[in-house]
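hi! just following up on the protien thing from before. the input was this:
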Amino acid sequence: MTDMKPVVLHEGVGRTKVSLSAQSMGNDLIVRLFNSQGHIGAVALSEYHPGEKRASTSVLTRFGHRDDSIAYMAAYRICRHLKKPVCAIAGIHLDDITKEEIEQIVKNCRILVERYLDRP
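and the predicted 3d structure came back as:
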């Protein structure tokens, strides 16, 4: 999967709709997870270690943001699958968000990552 054009996928409806865009940068991959109020909330960088057969992931989170678990999940999962460096940027904002909406957004992000990996 060396896409020069961005891949864009969407999941969910209404307030819990999120999008994933992915684009190659050389042999590496940049992935964004966002909603209609997207921003940079957290950035995760994951690198695959062939000898150890594992991925190592680091996360930076902006003050007051809680996008780190989504960025980590995306970078780690995609890196482990594709065995190449992945930078995931997550920024999902929703005013007056409920616990149920948070759970649905996280679920939608997981679905998007799997749909991305299942592409031919």
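The mean pLDDT is 95.
The first strand starts at residue 7 and ends at 11.
cheers
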